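Task: encode each sequence below as structure tokens.

Item 1
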Amino acid sequence: NPVLSRIVEQLHPQIHRILYRKFSTLLGGRNTIQHHDQLVQVCATGDGRAAAELSGRHWSELGGHINQLFDTNQLSRS
């Protein structure tokens, strides 16, 4: 989807900053690694439906964390 690609490209610097600042803790990093390990394993089996579900859960969790940052006004803090 070219529109989605442009949106992600425009948001990438902000998303990267959020990930670096808020999710680089050992627990956050471990959680992200586990998500990606699971996704790679499911992709290797060819189960597109399960891969989409795992990916959706990962993005939903990230979205929840980002919403928390907005709600607590932490995005403007360094």
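Item 2
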Amino acid sequence: AERFKALGEPTRLKLIMALRSGEKNVGQIVEELSATQANVSRHLLYLTDAGILKRRKDGLHVYYSISDPRVFDLCAVVCGSLEQHFDKQAQAFK
């Protein structure tokens, strides 16, 4: 349930997608999402505590990466389901 809750917030989904290409530090993620460092850090902590991300410290920098790449499979299933739902709604309005 905690993992689903973690994935239920748009900013956290954007963070996960930003890390799809590989490990990044907080500054890189902040720049990519055009968000504040405080907001990004809060969401990174939440995703790490939920076991979705892992972190690695190197000197003054903290790097984040996906701890289990199957999270992308889960996102694909949910997005596919939503797409079907919205397609059906669109057909009903035609």
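Check on item 2: Strands lie at 24-25, 53-58, 61-66. The chain has a mean pLDDT of 88.
End of task.
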